[in-house]
Design goal:
This protein is of the alpha+beta class. Helices cover 23% and strands 17% of the residues. The chain is built from 15 helices and 18 strands. It has helices at residues 3-12, 130-139, 151-155, 196-199, 271-280, 297-304, 307-310, 336-345, 348-354, 390-399, 422-433, 446-453, 475-482, 502-512, 517-532; strands spanning 47-51, 81-83, 94-96, 104-106, 111-115, 177-181, 184-188, 228-234, 239-244, 262-266, 288-289, 313-317, 320-326, 361-363, 406-413, 437-444, 462-468, 537-548. The protein has a five-stranded mixed β-sheet, with no helix packed on it. Helix 8 (336-345) packs antiparallel against helix 10, helix 9 (348-354) runs antiparallel to helix 11 (422-433) and helix 14 packs antiparallel against helix 15 (517-532).
């Protein structure tokens, strides 16, 4: 997995890997005939139940690793910016939240200045100040509150040495974050970062008043800046009850609708149980949703035969790519012709079927997800068609000195995730056999698999991998995987192809200077196409998220930022 997969795991921990729930990876976004849900206009009141597999653990803004502020977390924690809460591609845009705008860049995007809106208050009625935002960020540097996105440590001047406020004897905090007055906050970065507004959607930017901080116990009752406050947190997020924050004002928050009076989050449930309950929609379950559990192939077949049930399925896409990864340090993958041959031999139709079928996966020939916000640029350097091109693969193998074929090992996870699991590996094995390539499968338990593929010393020659977006842009997709300066020799390494090309590194730096996000997207797409020629990965598919919701749920909004139903928009009355 990746940094982003961590998101995926936490934001939408279920099924096709995050399938982040934060997730959405395809060009068109939701494809429901009725994305707005049940009949009638949305109204305030009632209780929305959330049925999930994974508990909402570490409910502290410093420790959460989310995309766009997360789903349930964004009901409690407002940030400087947030995701646009609209269907499809419009939802992949970043918009102001606590701040009046997306920030004012200066000094070549190394300085970002934000002004807080007037009238912002916490659940206890006290005002939200810029000092609270600064402190909320600073506490995320404390070792005991680690787990959030790592960018601030990398981007802020002095961030690589700062250890958080609990060890800060000066009491002044990070000098690279200034608060000249109660509504102004200024960030000083060590390099240009035109996508800082995207980063400012992370929960680390949620305000935390120093006087209310209880360290690791703050998560038990974090002070709400959003429309709901935490009134119950049992078993580390297994049961969360959120009720209205009386001091939240819709006048300062254009994004969250906050229709229900109560949000009741119940986790630790089996996926099949969740889907059964949502399918039946009895009692409280009629006003229930899930933020982390997809429908599986068998369940989709049942839904397809029930018109009423099918009308309660939300479809979305998240910026996520499943792919084959090569380690060019391991023979025979040091030879580009061998990597190209495998690229030609892959049968994407069989891979898609192994991932659950075309309803749950879309074939991919580009590394970047096929969404405009990422800068998607169509290309297919090694056209294999729908079912592979074994003839072309054999030709390349012969040129590489393997006229009698070759034998290789493919490492995969034993987890039944339909992504890096035995089903996908077997589909690859069968396809490559037609090209004269014998594939031996090496299945590892999830933890061992993750450790091995992220170790620069132990990385296999060929393995199944995946990457999800920290935000909908090419930057957090391409840089961690292909920026040579991000190769980690003695820790978790994500640059699986060990690419360290100065021209690629320089282009990443140049794009990061751009504050015009559309212009940046175009450059990311062009860079993806150029890197793709090196055949360091074989893109396989982008997941599609299909999730049930109760029959009384209204105003269903699914954006291309998260790919799943946005609980901040739902009504149950």
């Amino acid at each position: 997995m990746s940094r982003s997969s961590v998101i995926a795991r936490r934001v939408a921990a279920a099924s096709v890997s995050l399938v982040l729930a934060s997730g959405a990876a395809a060009c068109a976004g939701p494809k429901d005939n009725d994305t707005k849900g049940g009949g009638g206009k949305p109204a305030e009141g009632g209780t929305l139940t959330v049925l999930n597999r994974d508990p909402q653990t570490d409910f502290d803004p410093a420790r959460l690793y989310t995309s766009g502020g997360g789903n349930v977390p964004s009901l409690v924690f407002r940030t400087l910016t947030t995701r646009n809460r609209e269907d499809g591609a419009k939802g992949a845009e970043v918009v102001p939240d606590l701040a009046t705008d997306l920030g004012k860049p200066s000094k070549n995007a190394t300085v970002w200045t934000y002004t807080l809106k007037k009238g912002l208050k916490y659940e206890d009625g006290t005002p939200i100040t810029s000092a609270d935002v600064k402190y909320g960020i600073e506490r995320s540097f404390a070792a005991e509150l680690s787990g959030g996105a790592p960018y601030l440590r990398d981007w802020l001047i002095g961030g690589d040495k700062y250890q958080g406020p609990y060890k800060d004897k000066s009491g002044k905090g990070l000098a690279s974050i200034e608060t000249p007055d109660e509504r102004t906050i200024v960030f000083h970065l060590n390099k240009p970062e035109g996508e800082f507004p995207y980063l400012a959607t992370q929960t680390q930017f949620a305000p935390v008043p120093k006087s209310k901080d209880k360290g690791t116990k703050y998560e038990e009752h974090p002070l709400s800046s959003g429309p709901y406050k935490v009134v119950k947190n049992e078993n580390d997020g297994e049961r969360l009850r959120l009720e209205r924050n009386p001091h939240w004002s819709a006048e300062t928050d254009e994004e969250r609708k906050a229709y229900p009076d109560v949000i009741d989050v119940r986790s630790g449930l089996d996926s099949s149980v969740i889907n059964q309950r949502l399918s039946a929609s009895q009692g409280a379950d009629a006003a229930a949703v899930t933020t982390d559990t997809n429908l599986g192939p068998a369940e989709l077949a049942k839904v397809a035969g029930d018109k009423e049930l099918a009308s309660h399925v939300g479809t979305g896409h998240f910026g996520y790519t499943n792919y084959l990864a090569f380690n060019p340090k391991v023979k025979p993958f040091d030879d580009p012709k061998v990597r190209q041959a495998i690229s030609y031999a892959v049968d994407r139709s069989s891979v898609v079927n192994a991932a659950g079928g075309s309803s749950l996966a879309e074939p991919a020939t580009t590394y970047l997800p096929n969404q405009k916000s990422f800068g998607y640029t169509k290309y297919d350097h090694f056209p294999a068609g729908a079912s592979g091109n074994p003839k072309k693969a054999r030709e390349l193998l012969k040129k590489a000195g393997h006229k009698n074929g070759l034998t290789i090992t493919l490492t995969h996870s034993n987890a039944k995730d339909f992504e890096t699991s035995p089903e996908i590996a077997t589909a690859i094995q069968d396809a490559l056999k037609k090209a004269g390539i014998t594939v031996k499968l090496q299945g590892l338990e999830e933890n061992d698999y993750s450790d091995k593929i992220h170790s620069a010393k132990d990385e296999p020659g060929l393995f199944l991998s995946r990457w999800g977006a920290d935000w909908p842009s090419g930057g957090p997709f391409l840089a961690p995987i292909f920026d040579g300066r991000q190769i980690v020799e003695d820790g978790a390494n994500f640059n699986t192809g060990f690419l360290n090309d100065k021209s690629v590194n320089d282009e990443i730096d140049e794009i990061n200077k751009l504050t015009d996000l559309d212009a940046a997207a175009a450059r990311w797409g062009a860079l993806d196409k150029r890197i793709g020629e090196k055949a360091l990965t074989v893109p396989l598919f982008h997941p599609v998220y299909k999730r049930l919701y109760g029959k009384d749920v209204k105003n269903v909004v699914i954006s291309d930022w998260t790919g799943v139903l946005d609980v901040s928009q739902v009504a149950v009355k």
